[in-house]
Each structure stands twice: as structure tokens, then as C-alpha cells.
Amino acid sequence: MPEAFIVDAVRTPVGRRGGGLSGVHPADLAGHVLAALLDRTGVDPGAVDDVYLGCVGQIGAQTGNIARTAWLAAGLPQHVPGTTIDRQCGSSQQAVHFAAQAVMSGAADLVVAGGVEVMSLVPIASPAILGAREGMGNPYDGTGWRTHFGDQEVSQFHGAELIAEKWDVSRPDMERFALASHQRAAAAWAAGAFADEVVPAFGVAADEGPRPDTSLDKMAALKPLRDGGRLTAAVSSPISDGAAALLVASADAVRRHNLAPVARVHAMAVVGSDPIFMLTGPIPATEKILHQSGLAIDDIDLVEINEAFAPVVLAWQKELGADPGRTNAYGGAIALGHPLGATGARLMTTLVHQLRRTGGRYGLQTMCEGGGMANATIVERL
């Protein structure tokens, strides 16, 4: 069966809301990482067959097919097309899947996959907020939706609270997990672990999110996001800005362009899950991809699972029996940030570089997605 190879992967630092990347146009931010990727690989940009970028807030500066505008903003060849993908938080992981599928089917030889989100400029849920304000309705007002799901609240915050209750994840459990995320991210930066994956951008050289000076006492002093709830800002991913990109190639392209891939796409899966709980998808997605690949969770050397909220990861660990030491070993989105449409590619970028750095063989990436979905990917280091 034809294979898909990851030649290289790069990302910008992840900026805080209002931080060093907040004033950068999203097309320029994505264009910067696209140009950096092609420069590092040495591939002729004109040989790229297509560009897939994830972006969730497709409004304002992020509308108009940002995959195309970012490519052109970087001064890259006009004959190369692009398309923009929305699978909510998994948009750029899905971009990697589409790129691999195009290569494995023989429809393409070289595809760039990635994502971008400047949440400082385009706030979360902007299209829905504008639509409601302009009288366009909201996604959950339709007769069919209400017939099947009634008037239940549909939000990631609500889903995360439901997960914490169902899996009995306490606030102290979540705060200890969040503290570890910050400590791991700070330690990774101090050890130079991100040196090969991060391309400085617009004056920002390092992730702005990690807080090495935080503590359990500081977290315990925060008010819940909702009255009577368990979630606080400390156990949730922050609003962030960033971009990431990977070059996916066929075996023939690897030979023709004299490339040295870092990993092979071993397996891919995507599932739907309860849209009210919304964020439980990584559990069945992981079960599905392990069955599909013939691997067990203990065969996985490193896991990157998105820390949208702490209970998502903690419930996943309980169900899968995953080793916490191999899970988000370099920090996760609670510390590093979650620029929605870019996070899937950011996680994959971190995963392939850390597999190479540590000598691990298999890496698993999975993440929850709005609407009750999840992608899962297993890569094998080369």
C-alpha cells in the first residue's frame, strides 16, 4: 500500500491573547511558517500539489480561503492551489489526514498541511456571535436538532463540566494536572527541546503561555468559570495565536527530491461522539486507531492529546490506562496555548520532533473537537 511520509514540521511560537503575535495578520503568520517549512526542506515550492490549512474562525481576516491567501502572501507560486478546513479544534490534524490520504491515493506527491488561528484578532465563536446579532440564527435552533437533542446546552464548557462529573475528576486533580503542564513546558524550553520545531516569528522566539511561577495555591484562589462548577481558567486552555505546517510526501517524491523524512503516517482515524458531552471523542478515537493498527497503548512511546480542558485528558487516561509520563511530556495546551485551527498541526509538529529527539518509535496524537468528534493519528519515527 502506498505510504505517506512527513518530511519536516515547523511551528511558530504560540502567543498569548494580546501578546507578541496579536497584531500580525493571520495570512502573514501562516505565510511565515509556510515559507519557513519550504526553506528548511529545500523543496521547490512550485512542486507542491496542494495546500491544506485548518482555521476555525473563518471570518474577517481569516475568511476568503486563508490557505490560498497565506500561500500568496508568502510570495509563493500562484499555480499552487489551497483549501481551508474546519473540523473545529481538529482542523489542522484533519489537514494532515487529508494530505496523507491524497498522497496514499496517488492523487498528489507533495502536500503542505497545517493551520493558523489569531484568536486575539478573531475571537472564538465570532461567526456564530455575528450571525446571531444579525438575525441569522444559531446552529442549534433548527427543528431537527431540537427534535433529537431538545434544549440542552451545547458548549465546550458545559461538556467539560459533564466529563469532570462523570469521571469524578475533582478540581484538585485538574489543578495538579495543569501545574504539571506548565512545569513540563517550562522544563522543555529550558532543555532546548523545542529548538528544532519552533521558527521565531515577528519578534517572538518562544511560547508565551507557560507560567513556571504558578502554583496550586494560586490556582485554588481562582473563581470557577460557572457557579458551582469545577472548571477555572487555570485548568482550561488559554486564548492563543499561532501557526504550524508540515510537508507530506509520497515515496516517489522522497526519492525524486532527495528528501529525508522524519516520520511515516502509520494509521489515521476519526470518530463522532456525543455532541452534548462533546469532548469525549479522544476515547473512542484512540480505541479505534489502536484496533486498526494492531498496537496497544503500551506500544505508544509518546502521546500528544490536546488539553482543551484538564478533565478531557484525565478522563481519557482513566479509560485507556495510558502512562501519564508519556502523555504531553513537554506540556500541553493549558500551558502552551490552543490557537484553534493551528493546534492539530502544532501537536503533530511537537510529536514528530520529540520522537526523533527521544528515539521513540510510535507516537499518537488525538484531540477533542466541537460538535462531538475526534481525530487520532499514529506516526512512526524513521
Top keywords for this entry?
Acetyl-CoA acetyltransferase; ten-stranded mixed β-sheet; 382 residues; alpha/beta; Peroxisomal Thiolase, Chain A, domain 1; single chain; 13 helices
Task: Please characterize this protein's 3D structure.
- This protein has 13 helices and ten strands.
- It has helices at 26-41, 66-73, 91-105, 126-133, 143-149, 156-166, 171-190, 216-220, 251-256, 282-293, 310-320, 333-336, 340-358, and strands spanning 4-11, 15-16, 50-54, 82-85, 110-118, 240-250, 263-272, 302-305, 362-369, 373-381.
- Strands 1, 2, 3, 4, 5, 6, 7, 8, 9 and 10 form a ten-stranded mixed sheet that branches.
- Helix 2 (66-73) links the parallel strand 3 and strand 4 (82-85).
- It is globular and about 60 Å long.
- Residues 5-251 form the Thiolase N-terminal domain.
Distance between the termini: 18 Å
DSSP E strands, number? 10
Identify the CATH homologous superfamily of the domain at 266-381.
Thiolase/Chalcone synthase
Which percent range fits the helix content? Answer: 25-40%
How does the helix and strand content classify structurally?
A: alpha/beta
Q: Any idea what the radius of gyration is?
A: 20 Å
From the spread of the alpha carbons, the general shape counts as globular
Low-pLDDT ranges: none
Q: Examine the secondary-structure arrangement and name the CATH architecture of the domain at 266-381.
A: 3-Layer(aba) Sandwich
Order of helices and strands: EEHEHEHEHHHHHEHEHEHHHEE
| The level-1 CATH class of the domain at 266-381 | Alpha Beta
The number of helical segments is 13
Question: What is the overall pLDDT average?
Answer: 97
What is the name of the CATH topology of the domain at 266-381? Answer: Peroxisomal Thiolase, Chain A, domain 1
Percent strand: 15-25%
Instruction: Describe the main β-sheet briefly.
Output: 10 strands, mixed
